[in-house]
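re the bet — no i am not wrong, look at it urself. input seq straight from the record:
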Amino acid sequence: MILFCREELSQMMGVPPESIDEHASFEDLRLNSIHAMQMLDELEDRLNISISPIIFWENPTLASFCKAIAQQN
């Protein structure tokens, strides 16, 4: 899950995947609400699940976000 999310973020933000620290806050990664919604849409489509947007604010790092998604399913 983390590898997939890291790849999605890297494409959206135009940075190499390895530059995305899974323990850095989304704020530190300069993830904005547009990026967050794009990633949620992609995850919902690929995993065929529904994800509440609030999950980004409850889980402010890529690692915690991915863990929450995995526990949800």
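see?? Residues 33-73 form one domain. told u. also The chain has a mean pLDDT of 92. so pay up
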